[in-house]
């Protein structure tokens, strides 16, 4: 197993806590284990499930990918998905050879040695957990489960999900975890669009319903990464994942707030953050932006807040961080209005172009993208809004209106350009010709006359 430093801001004494980690290692000769599993089903083929299937490729005789969306399955068959090139090549070869099969129902689940659930766990407009996909997937898996299977839940969710939706329903069917079947939670750790964070190099955590469940699940997860760490229970693993993403939410909220502080002193927040980052202990910084998007950071903390609310357990820091994240896109809208007014342009007659709309560079994912509330806020001001994003051909707004990415324009046609997402390998030199540029990334150097939020 590979050794990884603990990412803890505790004054350089991380090594003193390494003995608290239980690192999984395969017993010599495989004693106490059944024959290696040969078939695996991935339930949910989104931004977690599909990379998981690719990471398992080559180690299994049969991989079945299950997704309820015919559109998603067709996109996978056509190769129109966000994946590194090596994964695209494996996927195309595996589909052609039959190593990877796709289906839209759970008919093959009962035949599988291993089932991994990777379904989305979003929140609704009121920030309440939307558990429909998770509950339905768990019901389907439980109904098809057979003796000897290993079932691993990877979706980020509330504490107790694994026992409530898998272990207990299986017990009611006569399948006891640790004896008849093996159940564990191992949260995904996938960083879409970042080639530096590969499956193989990213440690994973596993918490099984029993020690035997943990070992069985760890053998599966160990096929994707060089480091697997065991925790005492599924609940410990579930809360570990929530803590990871809540920490990120708090850090990003602070980074945005500190960027505004830097603005008061006419200082560059990137310079200040990088300088602070030279301290080798006690600091774990983040960078500011237009808001926080994706399927994790804007959503996952609300699973804990939702669970704690009926217990009357206050979490003021987390609650304030999430409010700050929600409010960040409006700060961008207000800044656009300020810049237009300062230039003598009435926002009601202004034309504004968003440069990039996906939530993150290098991906086409629009989930929770700050661009969506920014567009909505600008339209409420009467601004004529358009966008340019080579990875996102169309955007459907909450009011049902659909926008298409613009490419047939002159940069000078716009009163202001909002730099929201800068994709790698894309030429943005044309932004120089825009008369006014608001850089919400704080790092867009292609337009020397840019202003920041």
UniProtKB/TrEMBL annotation:
Region (Disordered): 186-208
SMART domains: UDPG_MGDP_dh_C
One of the GO BP terms on file: polysaccharide biosynthetic process
Pfam families listed in its UniProt record: UDPG_MGDP_dh (PF00984), UDPG_MGDP_dh_C (PF03720), UDPG_MGDP_dh_N (PF03721)
UDP-glucose/GDP-mannose dehydrogenase C-terminal domain ranges (all copies): 353-446
Keyword vocabulary terms for this entry: NAD, Oxidoreductase
UniProt biased composition (Basic and acidic residues): 188-203
Domain of life of the source: Bacteria
GO molecular function: NAD binding; oxidoreductase activity, acting on the CH-CH group of donors, NAD or NADP as acceptor; oxidoreductase activity, acting on the CH-OH group of donors, NAD or NADP as acceptor
UniProt xrefs under InterPro entries: 6-PGluconate_DH-like_C_sf (IPR008927), NAD(P)-bd_dom_sf (IPR036291), UDP-Glc/GDP-Man (IPR017476), UDP-Glc/GDP-Man_DH_C (IPR014027), UDP-Glc/GDP-Man_DH_C_sf (IPR036220), UDP-Glc/GDP-Man_DH_dimer (IPR014026), UDP-Glc/GDP-Man_DH_N (IPR001732), UDP_ManNAc/GlcNAc_DH (IPR028359)
Family: Belongs to the UDP-glucose/GDP-mannose dehydrogenase family.
Record protein name field: Nucleotide sugar dehydrogenase
